[in-house]
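Sample entry (123 residues):
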Amino acid sequence: MEGRAVIGEFRAFLLKTNALALAIGVIIGTALGTVVSSLVNDIIMPPIGLALGGIDFADLKIVLKGAVGGDPTTEVAIRWGLFINAVIAFIAIAFVLWWISRMLIKEANAVDATKCRACTSQI
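Predicted structure, serialized as tokens:
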């Protein structure tokens, strides 16, 4: 009997709170993140790399200690090119998300409104 009470309480928690909506939002957000990452990495970044003369930032590094015995995993390096890649990808992803949200999220003002809902400026 106690197991049923716990399940019923958990079900009530899911239905009465925003836990289910939050879970759905996280799942959709993860899926959207994958799509946006692919858009940036596979569509946007190649032309940027081409425009910059075909530079692959991933290869740019300062080697502090060379690889031992030809094993690249023993190399110690500051991989500043990967950091530059991450910054460029972040900016591109942020721009794409801003663009998508601007297209999909429309907040209309009431017909008789005198101020904008978003910025409170006079209409």
